[in-house]
Design goal:
globular; disordered C terminus; single chain; 266 residues; mainly alpha; Glycerol uptake facilitator protein
Length: 266
């Protein structure tokens, strides 16, 4: 039952991410001459992460991204069974979110300024799959490294973890929207691409492979940098442990009648 709750939370979180993130892009547009659209779309994705982190973070960890789940898996933070369950849930949530956008925009006869439900594409990099892969690998690497650092047991960010992760997502979106639309999330790309079809569906593999490679690299690099074998306990902790475990030493003094300063009785 606990796993089911986690999976449902991931469905809801990814649904909201696609609905509000891609929906904002569809409303404001993200063309080359829409600088304001870049900022608003980036903020939409980032703010969704902040909100969902505090909403479902204590239930599922708020991955809402298969690449994040892969990073957590490779870092030893989840089982392979849960990884599969998370990815399936995230994809279902993304497809549902894209479907809801289609229903809203069609029923309301609203213009989709992205022309494809906010789907990612390679048009702005002249159709170069290589460039698209590089962008997605690098941005996903940055994002997943941040998540692993913020959620590490050694980190002490208090209640600001969700905010830090959300702001990082906003930042990578500001940079990447003009290049690939910024995926860093295979599920987020899958939902809109299935409905848009055409080039969006043909380019989809870039937005699956790139984020997964970036996440895997982030997990490997973070584990290397963290290197638990070299962690040293603070001096105070060491001293306390030493005092606690040390056996008490008792002085064993024997009385002697031959003490040099003691006079012998006659």
């Amino acid at each position: 039952m606990e796993s089911i709750r986690k999976y449902v939370a991931e469905v809801i979180g990814t649904f909201v991410l696609v609905l509000l993130g891609c929906g904002t892009a569809m409303l404001v547009g993200c063309g080359a001459d829409f600088g304001g659209g870049y900022i608003l779309t980036a903020l939409a994705f980032g703010l969704v992460i902040v909100g969902m982190a505090y909403c479902i973070g204590n239930i599922s960890g708020c991955h809402i991204n298969p690449a994040v789940s892969l990073g957590v898996l490779l870092s030893g933070g989840m089982t392979f069974t849960d990884f599969v369950g998370y990815v399936v849930s995230q994809c279902l949530g993304a497809i549902a979110g894209a479907g809801m956008l289609k229903a809203i925009f069609n029923l309301g006869d609203v213009v989709d300024k992205t022309g494809g439900y906010g789907a990612n594409g390679l048009a702005n990099v002249n159709g170069s799959a290589g460039a698209g892969l590089l962008v997605e690998i690098i941005l996903t690497f940055i994002f997943v490294m941040t998540i692993l650092g913020v959620t590490s047991k050694k980190a002490n960010h208090g209640s600001f973890g969700g905010l830090i992760i959300g702001l990082t997502l906003t930042l990578v979106h500001i940079f990447g929207i003009g290049l690939t639309g910024t995926s860093i999330n295979p599920a987020r790309s899958l939902g809109p691409a299935l409905l848009a079809g055409g080039d969006a569906l043909g380019d989809l593999w870039v937005f699956i492979v790139g984020p997964f490679v970036g996440a895997a690299l982030a997990a490997v690099v973070y584990k290397f940098l963290e290197d638990p074998s070299k962690n040293v306990k603070p001096v105070a902790e060491k001293a306390a442990a030493a005092v606690k475990t040390a056996a008490p030493v008792k002085a064993n003094v024997t009385k002697s009648n031959n003490h040099p300063n003691k006079k012998k009785k006659k």
